[in-house]
Amino acid sequence: MGEALTISWDQDAPFSVDLTGRRPALRIFAEAQKARRDEVLPLTPDFAHFLAETPEAERVGRVFKLSRERGGEPIGLGKVGAMIAKIGKKAGVVVNKADGKFGSAHDLRRAFGTRWAKRVMPAVLRRLMRHSAIQTTMGYYVDLDAADVADQLWAGWGANGGSTPAAGNTLGNSTQETETPTNAAGVTTSCDKMR
Length: 195
Known about the structure:
195 residues, two-stranded antiparallel ribbon, mainly alpha
């Protein structure tokens, strides 16, 4: 979260938005991160579109200009974290019912990782999350439940990438049925209807 608060439009800043390449990116200088190496990371399309809403004339200094109402001084990291936790509690975002824990800034990061885990390959997610080891990404974010696995299996099955089932069925018929079969209870048994 501390890094997010320092993202700047200014190209000489340790963390800055870079709109000069083929795709919007975040540029990080070596001295600004634990890995001690310069890095360019892609921005997710939704975040890039959010940033694009900022008029060009206002693209100077910090991207997130969070300041106190009086004096204009920047709000500290602890205060921002407390504000996010307060919002999570007021909104009723429970992340651990047993402990009575409500949503926090770190939970927003986890939600981001979980959302993108279903959309990109683990190696891409590792870069987005800035994990040094793929094992961290795999351990925390690449855990699909049975419904997610089934969706991926069905999407990749069939002649048209999952849009239609293959001809025939498991009962030994060699051609696709023309009527929708039902069982004794009247429940549809066609694979096409199960999707």
